[in-house]
Design brief:
The protein has 17 helices and 10 strands. The chain is an alpha+beta fold.
Length: 453
């Protein structure tokens, strides 16, 4: 099975509210030899204000984000969806793709009335090349170079890692150029550390990842965020009672609690240690886990660690109590206030999926009646927004006025946690992140665009 390497450039970093400006992909065979390219540029929806910092990094003029020469979100996301499904099955891979690109793609599909999870279906696998680079650096640090940034900390930024390993991307923060750079690093890791590549490729499918952790045998776990990387040998002590794909991994080097596990305050203090004695991994998100037997550097300690894991798990009440306590510790209820944040609130209700297909296949003149009958309120709201943007003349005056009020409210929202999208008040603050002399030019672009609006 081959690979589809992909990347996005976006209006900002909020995966639920920002939109895709550019999507690029290169299809390769199993040896990373290119077979096909796909690229598309999209314009933003009227209510979305792009981040000045994002546009500065992408070198995309503000006016171009709304150019009628670009595909609309409705049409462009349909083409991306078709590309993914037609190239399946494949291994979909990118740089920080699991943490960012895939999430913003899923939410964009969701908003545009498309199935949100094509990379997880149709026999597909998913890999994050940044995570594999992080794991390679943690376990075989001389194989690739991870450079230090200006602050002296390791930098996993794509352009920095490429430069440190002898490759200069054509253009930084340009989708197709970033895809080419990602393929270069994937090939490099595969050539220099085929054992590492093969080991972590196993978890590119949820089923394989779950088989590894459910074996109750010690695993090497690699996690990280930005410049921080941690690797440890752990074992699954339990899982989320509602979602078995969320496994709770105990660090076998951690000192076990010597207090009553029903003491929530003591438990919280123990769980919040650095490094954390227990972490949650998502088996459906290509986790960096590998059986300890598969890595030769652990040959001398595998027997001791296997014995310790067995002793811990043989105490059924300890594993069970730790699992329950950890679930209570991390079980936080989040209020998904806005419809854009409700993708994971449940699958489409009733026959909504069928009506989504009908909506997309119908003529514009017939779409209003279909939209009004969506049994799932989330998708009904998105369908009405699509109609208001593309064919407002089909709507009642009250619906058109409501849509204009929605755009105005989004653009003029206060800078607060209740309004996570980019608003004009947030734009002003972001200008400070753009260096001189470019700052004045970007201030002018935004002033002219939104003064006219």
């Amino acid at each position: 099975m081959g690979y589809v390497f992909y990347d996005t450039e976006t209006s900002g970093l909020n995966t639920q509210h920002d939109e895709i400006l550019q999507f690029a992909a290169i299809v390769t065979d199993a040896h990373f030899d290119e077979q096909e390219r796909f690229e598309i540029k999209l314009r933003l929806s009227p209510h979305v204000i792009p981040s000045p910092k994002a546009l500065f990094l992408n070198d995309t003029p503000l006016a171009e984000c709304f150019s009628p020469l670009r595909a609309s979100q409705f049409d462009g996301m349909a083409k991306i969806h078709a590309f993914i499904t037609e190239r399946s099955p494949a291994t979909f891979a990118g740089w920080n793709s699991i943490g960012f690109d895939e999430e913003i793609i899923r939410h964009s599909f969701y908003r545009q009335l498309l199935g949100a999870f094509p990379t997880s279906l149709f026999g597909n696998a998913r890999m994050d090349i940044m995570s594999i680079a992080r794991a390679t650096d943690a376990l075989r640090p001389r194989s690739i170079v991870i450079p230090s940034g200006d602050d002296g900390k390791k930098s996993f930024k794509l352009q920095n890692v490429c430069a440190a390993n002898g490759y200069q991307p054509r253009v930084a923060h340009e989708a197709m150029s970033d895809v080419e750079a990602c393929i270069y690093l994937a090939r490099l890791i595969h050539q220099r550390e085929p054992e590492i590549w093969s080991a972590f490729a196993q978890t590119s499918r949820k089923k394989s990842a779950m088989e590894i952790v459910k074996s109750k045998s010690p695993c090497v776990v690699v996690t990280g965020w930005k410049d921080y990387t941690r690797s440890f040998v752990g074992v699954e002590i339990g899982c989320d009672p509602n979602l078995s794909m969320y496994s709770y991994m105990l660090d076998l080097s951690a000192q076990l609690p010597n207090f009553n596990i029903t003491d929530q305050e003591a438990c919280a203090k123990w769980f919040d240690q650095t490094p954390a004695p227990v972490i949650k991994i998502r088996c459906n998100a290509s986790p960096m886990i590998v059986p300890i037997d598969d890595l030769e550097e652990y040959d001398e300690v595998v027997d001791d660690l296997t014995l310790r894991a067995s002793e811990i798990l043989s105490n059924g009440s300890l594993a069970r109590d730790l699992t329950n306590a950890f679930f209570r510790h991390i079980d936080k209820k989040y209020s998904n206030t806005h419809v854009e944040e409700k993708l994971y609130d449940g699958f489409p209700a009733g026959d909504t999926e069928h009506r989504m297909s009908c909506f997309r296949e119908a003529d514009w003149s017939d779409r209003l009646s279909i939209a009004q009958k969506f049994p799932d309120a989330r998708y009904r709201k998105f369908a009405m927004r699509v109609l208001a943007e593309h064919t407002p003349e089909l709507l009642e005056a009250s619906d058109r006025i409501s849509y204009q009020k929605f755009i105005t409210a989004r653009q003029h929202s206060e800078d607060s946690d209740d309004c996570p999208w980019m608003s004009l008040s947030r734009v002003k603050n972001q200008f400070l992140d753009i260096p001189e002399p470019s700052r004045d030019e970007w201030i002018t672009q935004y002033h002219e665009a939104y003064k006219n609006l």
